[in-house]
Design goal:
The chain has 120 residues and is mostly helical. It contains 6 helices and no strands. The protein has helices at residues 3-28, 32-54, 57-66, 68-80, 85-108, 110-118.
């Protein structure tokens, strides 16, 4: 296995885990606003994982932005809701790990994409 495939699988795993944590939060105490917020948080994650797995660089680029709502929710829960601190800490750790894996994949694949753009 090369570095690209390891980073690709790691990014897929971290994003899938984040999807599961968002579903856990949504189903913990279901209410209409929480279900709507959970759907908004989970949609980019669910849409992005197949594209991440296929190795599309654009998916890695936009997925770094797709992690932002989960990061904001987790930071808010850490500060405002002591009962959810464990969940929020898991989400924060996972968002940071997923972001690092996404950026690492973009850095590793950067040279090959630049070569393909400049080839005649």
């Amino acid at each position: 296995m090369n570095v690209q495939s390891i980073l690709r699988l790691g990014a897929c795993a971290a994003t899938s885990l984040l999807f599961a944590l968002v579903l856990w939060w949504t189903l913990l105490a279901p209410s209409p606003p929480r279900i709507l917020a959970g759907a908004v948080l989970a949609l980019p994650l669910a849409v992005g994982v197949p594209f991440l797995y296929s190795g599309k660089r654009r998916a890695y680029a936009w997925m770094t932005l797709g992690l932002t709502p989960a990061l904001v929710l987790a930071l808010t829960e850490v500060v405002a809701n002591p009962a959810m601190r464990f969940w929020a800490a898991l989400v924060l750790f996972d968002v940071i790990a997923a972001f690092a894996l996404l950026v690492a994949y973009l850095r590793v694949t950067r040279s090959s994409s630049l070569l393909s753009q400049t080839a005649p």
